Write the structure tokens for this entry.
Amino acid sequence: MTKDSNKPVITRFAPSPTGYLHIGGARTALFNWLYAKANNGKMLLRIEDTDRARSNDDATKALIEGLTWMGLDWDGEPISQFARAERHKEVAYALLDQGKAYKCYATAEELAQFRADHPFEKYQSPWRDYDGDDKDMPFSIRIKAPRNNDQIVVNDAVQGEIKVTSAELDDLILLRSDGTPTYLLAVVVDDHDMNISHVIRGDDHLTNTFRQCLIYDANGWERPAFSHIPLIHGNDGAKLSKRHGALGVHEYADMGYVPEALNNYLLRLGWSHGDDEIITQKQAIEWFDLSDVNKAPSRLDLKKLDTINAHYLKEYDDETLFNIVINQCNKDISSQSKEWILHALPNLKQRIKKTTELIDLVYVFIRNKKNYSDKQAITEIKDNQTTLSALVATLDQVTSWDEDSLDQALRTLANESFDGKLAMVMKPLRAALVDRMQSPSLPMIMATLGKQEVLARIHIALAL
């Protein structure tokens, strides 16, 4: 049965809670969320936790935290697939009663032997047409796949029309011999009961789709509209792995990326709208359509993500950016340090691509001015005491304490006392103020700290 186009749009994101929110899963969630929003629909969240050995509460929490960080909300409460096991069994037994499924008494040993002897053949159960009395032994319930040459057709919104002959499909197991439902059955029953109109997922599920169509058709249920998105590959075209970069959304956050940038990047990773690169959430909802998803796999490019992240960081308000940086610093900040950082942020955020880069840049505003730890900076200070004394005399005479005036004062000192070699002035000054040999613009730092603080730090350095 085909989907009724007049039905409300309901998508779902259905991750397995076996780890963090993978970057590929995050893009799948984003596409489901956007399609629902673009069509005034809903996105539901289903936790596919039927694999009890691998599923755990911490992983579920990590998935939800990842979605929340990305700003992808869902309608209603998250649904546990495991909690619906009785409903899944009910459907399997209903198909059994209707003669559309059968009890298979094949043992695990018999199945293993068949696979070993016939690795390229599909298994055909000898119990498919058994009509004798029930046997007092464990059994699984298998669906009766049609054994004709009819075609199962899926009109995929991304891949186009795809066909498989029904005879190519095996009698898949619906209920295992221990009474637990299989993934394929559980997904179909849940999608049906949740009124899912569109299934948007990775193309690694394409084979499952045809097998799931057997279950839809056997029950007389309407199939959802399917869309299978090509997977994300590494920048070398190989299957994405840790060697290509971080795999979990939480890792991208730790690396200094912000959710707006990651959403924008993932949206463009396999979908396009002309030549637009920076796409706001409002625009994404307005423009998103599954027909614009590329058929070919996308390649992860962290340099491109850096560029997009830099754009969004420039747009962040200073207070929000301050809170992100302080959380990453994991340090208590004095009110004075906060004032300095907020004053400097409009300049600093023009220089960065990731929030983690700010930690080094704001060090000058949070360090204990009485302590020096950088060996090169300490050596620079001790070797240039005369220069530091000259800096005190020069800066003490500066009346307009702004960046331009300070820059001019430093250049004048270099011209008059150091043959115009500005580095001879800047290097010991940077060491004294920052306790490092690299920093943002010194005039900017000095203007931010104020005259009293700058002179105090130089005097401390002179006492080393």
